[in-house]
Amino acid sequence: AQNRRLRARLLATACPRTNIAETMLAALGDEHVPLLDASLGYRTAYREAAGAGVIVHDMGYTALAAAEEVDALTKEVLEVLHPRGVPKPVKREKPEADDDED
Questions:
Q1: Could you tell me which residues come within 8 angstroms of residue 35 by beta carbon, excluding any fewer than 6 positions away?
Q2: CA-to-CA distance for 100 and 59, rounded, in angstroms?
Q3: How many CB atoms lie under 10 A from the CB of residue 52?
Q4: pTM higher than 0.90
Q5: Is the separation of the CB atoms in 21 and 48 below 8 Å?
Q6: What is the pLDDT of residues 39-98, one digit of tens each?
Q7: Euclidean distance between CA atoms 66 and 43, whole angstroms
Q8: CA trace torsion 24, 29, 30, 31 (10° rounding)
Q9: 10-46 in b/e burial notation, b at 16+ Cβ within 10 A?
Q10: Contacts for 58-62 with beta carbons within 8 Å, 24 or more apart?
Q11: Helices 44-52 and 64-81 sit at what angle, rounded to 10 degrees?
C-alpha cells in the first residue's frame, strides 16, 4: 500500500561548503523527492550537544551557526507540512469540577 499523502524530502547533512558539494547536492533532488534548501553542516556543535545531552540552542555563542541551521530546517519542515501556515493551537475549556459530595 502506498501513502499518497507522504511528502518525502532529502536533507543534506555533514556536507562541506564547497562548489563540488553544492553541484552534487543540486543533482540529488528531483520532482519526486526534492532536496530541502536547509542543510546541517559538519559541525562539532552537534556532537558536543549530543554528548552533553542538550540541544545546540543551549550551547551559547559557540553553536550559533548550528542553531541557525536547525532553525532553518524547522521552518522549512513546517512549511512542507503546513503550506498554508501552521495552525494555531485550539483552546480547550476545562470541564467544571464536580463539587457534589454525596
A1: 9, 10, 11, 12, 25, 26, 28, 29
A2: 51
A3: 10
A4: no
A5: no
A6: 999 999 999 999 999 999 999 999 999 999 999 999 999 998 888 887 777 888 877 766
A7: 7
A8: -160
A9: eebeeeeeeeeeeeeeeeeeeeeeebbebbbeeeebb
A10: none
A11: 90
Cell 543540486, residue located: 26
Residue showing cell 507522504: 6
3-state SS, one letter per residue, for the chain: CCCCCCCCCEEEEEECCCHHHHHHHHHHCCCCCCEEEEEEECCHHHHHHHHHCCCHHHHHHHHHHHHHHHHHHHHHHHHHHCCCCCCCCCCCCCCCCCCCCC
Residue whose grid cell is 559541525? 43
